Structure formats: C-alpha cells, structure tokens
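Summary for the funding panel

The consortium committed to producing paired sequence-structure records for every protein in the target list. Below we show the first two records in order, beginning with the earlier of the two.
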Amino acid sequence: MNLTKYSKVIVQGVTEKISTQIALTMRSCGTNVVAGISPGEGGEEWLGIPVFSLVEQAVAKMGVIDTSVIVMPAYQVLDAALEAITSGLKQIVIITEGVPPLDMVKLLRKAETTETLIVGPNCAGIIIPEKLLLGTHPTQFYTPGPIGIISRSNTLTYEVAWELTRSRLGQSICVSLGCDPIVGSSFLQWLQILDEDDQTELIVLVGEVGGVAEELAASYISETIDKPVIAYIAGTCAPINQNYSPVNCLISNKVVREIESERTGAFEGANIPVAKRPSDIPSLVRNLL
C-alpha cells in the first residue's frame, strides 16, 4: 500500500447528500479526489468534482486510480466494489453501514484473488494527518507524528488519537477497520502494513468485546512484528446483561470480564503493554519511545 497526497481517489455515490459532504471534507484535507461515480449522471460536475456513470469511464479519463471511497445504500455496495475492482483499483474504503453479510463474503473472495485491500464496511476509513483523508475521521483530533493506530471502533480511534495529540504525540496513519459483523482487512494485515511503514515507529492496537481478532493479533505480534506495540481492550467495565449490538453478542458482565481477562493475558503473555484506559496510552508510548 502506497498512499500519498498524490494518490487518485474517487467517491462512489458522490451525488448523495452525505457522500457530497464526505467528498468535500476529504478534498479540504488535501485528498486528491479526482472524480465521483453516480450511475446515470455522467458528464456532469458536482461542486467541482467531475461525475462519471461508471468507474471504467473515470479511469479512462483520469488514468490509474488508487482508491475508491464507497458511500452508497448497503444493497448497492457489492456491485459498486466489484466494479471498482474490475477497473483495477487496489484500495476500497466502505463507509456504508449494514452491508449484507453474504455480499461481504462474495466481495472478500474477489478481493483475495485480486489482492485488493478492503477497509470497512461501517468504518471511519483511513487518515494520514494533514496529508490524506479517506473517510470520515474528524481531523481536529489528529496531528502528524510517528504513531500508527489500528482500531475496531470508530469513536475509540478518535479518542485515542486525541489523547496522543493532547500529549504532543502525533500519528503517522490511523485506520478504523469497521464495526459490521464481517469486515474487510484485519488487524494482521494492518500490523504488517504499519510494520513496513517508514513513518511509523510504534503501533497502538485498539480492540473490543467480541471475536478472537485480538488473540490472533497478540500471537502475530509476538512472532512477526518488530516495532513496539501497545494494546487497549475496551469492555472491562461493561454493564451487566447489556446487549452489545456492535459486536452482535448478548453476554453478562461476568463473561465479559472473563473474555477481557483472557484477551489482556494474551497481550501480556506476549510482552505487549496493555492500557487500562485511553488516557494511559500516552505514558506507555513515551516509555517505549
């Protein structure tokens, strides 16, 4: 993955109200949004953004395009993403929430065979502070620096970034993986990407209740990752009998604590510092740097 301020980006679904706002925000942050896609509306210009009916038309006009940001109704996302992959795009960020699980299965099979990186759905996307925004991260929480953030939660990404920014610790790249039941890229893929990134000196991994992604990440870090990593696992103070809809599980406080104890133990067993709360992260970062 090679994202720079020169990377060409399109927004699929650009003429929808929320899509337009996202596209304009991305442009204001320096993202090179070269076109928007809206079937049947090709040939128009939308607030300074050229509009095409098909991705292949945008590629023919603009040259090789690096990334698509998809902000479309959930049941149209699969077709939009497959169209982007067919046109040669290698990074796709899906902002839309609630993409049907079977559609995601089909998309991920196609992405695997074409080596396409999928971020989302239901995610805030990717941000390289003051250089590039692919999604909806609130830019006021971020500042340039050497710390990469990988998170399963949109809002926790913002909070952790803000805690670091307040402590004068900037970020190299921050990615929200997505909150839907089935998402594209994983902790493992992004750990590898940030481990190879010259601008990143330390990685902060933000996990939460549900699934085994964090345990797999802890094992992968201990075996493969050379850069220092700090973990924060949300959910240790979860209320009793709460419905955790973001991760699709009904569990009691006792079970949550058992899960988080095992998860925290997996990181500590791999000699990875674990923050008890987001506000603890800056001090752990300073100790490692």
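The next record, for a separate protein in the list, is shown here:
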Amino acid sequence: MKTVNVEVWSDFVCPWCWIAKKRFEKAVVSLAGQVQVVVSHLAYRRAKDVLPMDYKTALQQKLGGAAAADRMMEAVSANGLMEGLVYNFDAMRFGDTTKAHALLKNIGDPLLAQRLMERLYKAGTTDGLDIFDRDVLISLAKEVGVTDTSFDLESARIAAEIQRDESRASRIANGVPLFLFNDSVFVSGARDVSVFERAILDAAREAPEEITGVAEGGSCGIDGCSY
C-alpha cells in the first residue's frame, strides 16, 4: 500500500477550515485500504496581532459591509450543515489564535492533538467559548484527555515554529485551508470530497500538479474569505 503524507494548514477562526477538515477526513476514509494517509497539522494565523473581536463585525470590516458578510455567513452555514457542523456567528469571535496553535504544538500524542483540534473548532464555532483565553484552552485540553497542563503557550521555540509554518504556506498558496500531498500536489479551499480523493490518488502516483478544473472551494487569507 502506498503512503501519502499530507500537510494541512488551517486556523480556528477560518470559517472554511473546519468544513475542509471534515471533507478531507471523508476522503481518507473512502480510500482506506488503497492508500495510507499520514497527516501533519501546521499553524496559520489569519489575524496575527489582532485583539479578539465580534466575528460579524470582523467580517463586515473585511468584506466591505453587512450585505457581503451576510452572504458569506449564509454560504458557510449551508456548507457546514452538509457536514453536520453548526456555525453560531452570533457568539463567534475573530482574532489572533497564537495561543491555540501553541497549545496544539505542546501535545506530543497525535491522537490527543487531533481530538483537541476538533474540540477547538467546536468550542470557538458552535459553543461560543473563548479560545483566546489561556484558562479556557487548558480546560479544553483536559476535556479531551490531556493530563500535562504545564504548557508554555508563550514559548519562543514554538512561536518560531508557527512562523515557519506560515512561511511555508505562503510559498505554496495564499490563505487556508491548504493541503499539500507528498510535497507535490496541493489543494486550496474547502473542496468537495471527490477533489480530496483525487489529490490523494494523484499524490500516490507522484503526479506533481495542482488540482484544477473544478469549482473552487471557500478559503480564507489574511485579507478575508472567499467562496
């Protein structure tokens, strides 16, 4: 069985990233037995140095008004429901997610890290929890089974690692979600499950090309989101 290594860049305040994560996971499951997929999650901050703020306000500022923000929220909510996800924009907040990414990088167990990543998405997107607060982050880590709570979320080493993650992403594409398969094939945006399946199979065949010729999925960059 061939192995495909997938590097995934995402951010917890990117509304499309959770959707893309679910669709990618469906693709991995559908190809189980054909391709072994090894996933590495990398950090990307859409709002570096931005203090937490109301998500609707942030969308309006980035998209140029309430009408555009409403269209974006409608598109995200509709796509989210297809994956069983609830977007509570009235409670969501937007800001610098350095601490959340640092928390994940403190966790050596891949399974626990995966559980925590999923919990962080739900906490900030559905539950209205403050994922910018250290105490909340530590509580979420404990909730998924992390026992070591002596995390250094201000670690210079981890901060440098986050910077390296973002620099690598910027050399591949603009914004997140971003998936790089075997360092050759990349997919940007919350694409359909079939697109992720094709990318995995193309990477397994060592086809060095970007997936094109299909409708683009929603994605988020430093300056805003598209769909």
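Regarding this second record: The CA atoms of residues 46 and 222 lie 5 Å apart. The chain has a mean pLDDT of 92.
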